[in-house]
Amino acid sequence: KTNQQWGGRFNEPTDAFVARFTASVEFDQRMYRQDIQGSVAHATMLTEAGVLTVAERDMIIQGLADIRADIEAGRFEWSIALEDVHMNIEAALTEKIGITGKKLHTGRSRNDQVATDIRLYLRDEIDLILLEITRLQQGLLGLAEQEADTIMPGFTHLQTAQPVTFGHHLMAWFEMLSRDYDRFLDTRKRVNIMPLGAAALAGTTYPIQRDITCKLLGFDTPAENSLDAVSDRDFAIEFCAASSILLMHMTRMSEELVLWTSAQFNFINLPDRFCTGSSIMPQKKNPDVPELVRGKSGRVYGHLFSLLTLMKSQPLAYNKDNQEDKEPLFDTIDTVKGCLRAYADMVPALESRKEYMREAALRGFSTATDLADYLVRKGMPFRDAHEVVGKSVAYGIETGKDLGEMSLAELQKFSDTIGDDIFDVLTLEGSVAARNHIGGTAPDQVRAAVKRGQEKLTQR
Ligand code: ARG
After folding, report:
1. 323 alpha carbon to ligand 1 midpoint, in Å?
2. C-alpha to C-alpha distances, 177 to 123, 294, 405, nearest whole angstrom
3. How far apart are the CA of 7 and the centre of ligand 1, in A?
4. Which CATH number does the domain housing residue 252 bear?
5. What number does the ligand 1 atom closest to the CA of 85 have?
6. What pLDDT, in 10s, does the model give residues 256-292?
7. What is the value of pTM for the model shown?
8. 114 Cβ inside 6 Å of ligand 1
9. Which of 358, 389, 406 is the last residue of a domain?
């Protein structure tokens, strides 16, 4: 027996392996809701267009509702022989309501159908991802507010640079995520365009009304060109690109958390529920969540490249290659959601070890720039001040003293411009408080940034 959906011109059934090899139902069945949603809109539109009767439409809609219930109750039998989610549902519909089911596909092709389904599916998932980014950002705001006064070393080249506040550092993460949010939101605009009506590639001879399906499905506008509509997967690539950048940001956060939870840094305690132990070393508590998120970036970057390569050199219009768009896209969605969820749950539970952060900030001459700035305020050109402070640091390394631990007499050996007002400048608190402008690390600025962040989130 040849395939019931397209067997007409065939003389023999599909080879059993080829049937399995070409089938996508195992992974595209997750779009069953969107497939049904699209079919309901299509049938409704066909009725308005006079192609289906009201009675036929109602039978189709009822049949599809029953199929959805069957799928959700686990009663639906997916068949590899029926290739994909689209033909499985269509065949089940005909089985349920008889010959009327065979009319549903009028003026439609699986090519515009699948493109429509993916866009509907991805649109819903982007909305969930946007919510989850916001939840993570909310957590960061809460923590940043709590840690606005906590002082830690700021690094460049992973060497102690200048003191910063932990809240300021967390708000840097917040900024990265704000850009990610905007990128997903912007991608969504190009996702929310309707291919339905393009049919196989050229459009259809039926008097379809694409504005009706467009409205019913909540798309912003019908795709302009039928050839492009069935073959465009830019939106999936863009989604994977936005996801890759998000994951890249999360690897940076992860890397810092892994470092900070190590005994050598000891800046952060990750509550036990986010960690696992070792089967051999009894003392171990490993930061698995950040490590795994760091590792998961690899598959997301890979999916971006899969899709770019998938689309490369494809002639217009639809090619079967495109069936390969789904697994990378779906795995990207799952991975992004998993990473965001883990982080949104974990971030509010991070506990800072303020004493260790402070102690670390006191090492490594983190206030050297403050001393140079002090000399400049007293009239010394910056380059000369740089030299003076460099010498006093060299002296500090030799004698094992940080700048703040030197006596006034010791400091004055390097410049007699230094007075006893220097000690306020060399404290960690003085150093961070002095960077008091928009974008600076001063605790007051962190609190102001948190406030602006909160406003931003409520406007979403
Ligand atoms: N399963 C197919 C896909 O995912 C649906 C479209 C098939 N169209 C076709 N002409 N073979 O792309």
Report:
1. 6
2. 19, 16, 40
3. 16
4. 1.20.200.10
5. 1
6. 999 999 999 999 999 999 998 888 888 888 999 999 9
7. 0.95
8. yes
9. 358
